Amino acid sequence: MWGRTVWLCLRAPGGRYRGFSSKAHPPGSGRITAEMLQHLERHALVDFGNREAVTRLEKAIAFADRLRAVDTDRVEPLESVLEDRCLYLRSDRVIEGNCAEELLQNSRRVVEEYFVAPPGNIALPKLDE
Amino acid sequence: MLGRTLREVSAALKQGQITPTELCQKCLSLIKKTKFLNAYITVSEEMALKQAEESEKRYKKGQSLGDLDGIPIAVKDNFSTSGIETTCASNMLKGYVPPYNATVVQKLLDQGALLMGKTNLDEFAMGSGSTDGAFGPVKNPWSYSKQYREKRQQKPHDEKEDSNWLITGGSSGGSAAAVSAFTCFVALGSDTGGSTRNPAAHCGLVGLKPSYGLVSRHGLIPLVNSMDVPGILTRYVEDAAIVLGMLAGHDPRDSTTVQDPVKPFTLPILTDVSKLCIGIPKEYHLPELSNEVRALWSKAADLFESEGAKVIEVSLPHTSFSIVCYHILCTSEVASNMARFDGLEYGHRCDTDVSTEAMYAATRREGFNDVVRGRILSGNFFLLKENYENYFIKAQKVRRLIANDFVNVFNSGVDVLLTPTTLREAVPYLEFIKEDNSTRSAQDDIFTQAVNLAGLPAVSVPVALSNQGLPIGLQFIGRAFYDQQLLTIAKWFEKKVQFPVIQLQEFMDDYSSVLKNEKLTSVSLKQ
């Protein structure tokens, strides 16, 4: 079973669930429902394909759950290691472009200067598990 | 000539001992002979010869552009190169020809370097073996070395024994194999979790990951925007410093590059290490670490101590969570970055035309392999509204703790950290594939990914051969933007350990001429 799979030999220190309100399920509950799978597939526009992919996701989640043991009370999230600096913003002047032809060449389907897409606003059909 | 340092070859070119065209042709012929390594996806023969011609004209006029003029280089296939197919080893981008050069590629071309080709990698740089690309796995040149074969008591010409070839490590395995097999002097890799340092250690090369923000990522097809850095693979530390000097600096096209003026990276020759403080993180003493790597690590620490440096044990308390944190942040950013591949503007497109959603889904199913799809799905899970706080934000908080661990250690007076790069030497492909990509990545990135979380510079230096005759490397980690200091110490260390040259001459005729040149009187380095 995936719960027994030895992911890494690292042992996390004894879990402390302090200061962490959890809505997620305890590990080992096999909590990926069919609805969740469908939801993810539509969201990612990538399908699972087979049972192995689902198992892989379950393992990934179990692995990620190890972070619960870390006390992050009053710790701010780190978005960028360069957070102490100002991002460079260049002036809002057009300095390059006019290369529509070059860019259109990489597309499989173009009409004049348009990329052609199939009709939108059609939901994906409901997929079976 | 092919085993020399950049400065030596550059001097030889200036003195006319060899021409850029001759150098180019030697490398091209080696590329053909080492095709079985599968290091290159695209070989840009015509372009390289044309560049060689132009370089030759410059040398004749005495107007060489610098140390890289006329020098063959290779670039990992996730850097955009104008007019040359850039695939990221994926079906999604097969046939994609970028209309522009990545900034780092442009900088190297502006220095007169000869682009030999684009090297193989794991698909979209996701992996630690260079085994999961759409063009097949890359073979480690050391599989065919005299040093390895002798230990296994194999005759060098025994082709039947090829079935047990070794992996290069990843994901910049093609770049590593290209440099290790002497087909070029420098190769660009990318480093998100150790993808430059890991193959460097397995292939006996210097693998440099610069500080985040020092080198432009414009044109590097992104994996994790907050951690990606272009990496440099060379045979010598000095060469890596020279190339870094050419690549570092603010790029208006990449607003995550810092605007500090960049000082040149000429490395002073360190003679006295007594003022240095080397930190050994105790949490890196993992049970999975092979005895040989552990012994070499210990020997290296002793070397510094015997030369007068202060060597102390330090603690990075959140180390055991680092790989988990990396896993969440990496998959989340990947899920976001891979969303651009929808088949509309570039890349693969399926034949369905029913609806945009169906087209996107089918295109992405056909274009991506299991590894990429798996990471996209995991990432999307962590980014769902109900999970965002508990996984993504949580990981970002842990990231701060990890980055702070490093800051605390450096603030306590440590100059560099010394750690292993990999758990052990390169393994045979057949053994490597027994575990899946995610398991392997989690294992192999263990020493390298924390550096990416913190944005620090790190370099893997080859130290010695294992009992099996395979390279083992050790990693130095420096303070952010102290790349020059890091490389200075690495260069001192490199000189002390005298890592042996790979001996491929019994396997390949061409290599005997490489070794013959080594015995020639040294090239004059006077300008």
Structure notes:
Chain A: Its EC number is 6.3.5.-. Chain A: Belongs to the GatC family. Chain A: One of its GO terms (molecular function) is ATP binding. The complex is a heterodimer of chains A (about 130) and B (about 525). Chain A has about 130 residues and is mainly alpha-helical. Chain A has a domain at about 30-65. Chain A has helices at about 35-45, 50-65, 100-105; strands spanning about 110, 115. A two-stranded antiparallel ribbon of chain A has the order 1-2. The two termini of chain A are about 20 Å apart. The model of chain A is unreliable at about 1-30 (pLDDT under 50). Chain B has about 525 residues and is of the alpha/beta class. Helices cover about 40% and strands about 10% of the residues of chain B. In chain B, strands 1-3-2-4-6-5-10-11-9-7-8 form an 11-stranded mixed beta sheet, sandwiched between helices. In chain B, α4 links the parallel β2 (about 70-75) and β3 (about 115-120). In chain B, α2 packs antiparallel against α3 (about 45-60) and α10 (about 320-335) packs across α13. The longest helix of chain B has 27 residues, at about 385-410. At the A-B interface, α1 and α2 of A face α10, α11, α12, α13 and α15 of B.
Strand adjacency order, main sheet of chain B = 1-3-2-4-6-5-10-11-9-7-8
The most extensive contact between chains is:
A-B, 67 and 80 residues
Overall residue-averaged pLDDT value of chain B: 91
Choose one word for the global shape of chain B: globular
Output the helix-strand order of chain B.
Answer: HHEHEHEHHEHEEHEHEHHHHEHHHEEHH
Q: Strand order, biggest sheet of chain A?
A: 1-2
Q: Oligomeric status of the shown chains?
A: heterodimer
Count the DSSP helices of chain A: 3
- Count of β-strands of chain B: 11
Number of helices of chain B: 18
Overall radius of gyration of chain B: 22 Å
Provide the helix percentage of chain A: 10-25%
End-to-end Cα distance of chain B: 18 Å
Shape of chain A: flat
Q: Ends of chain A: how far apart?
A: 20 Å
H/E series of chain A: HHHEE
User: Which bin fits the share of residues in helices of chain B?
Assistant: 25-40%
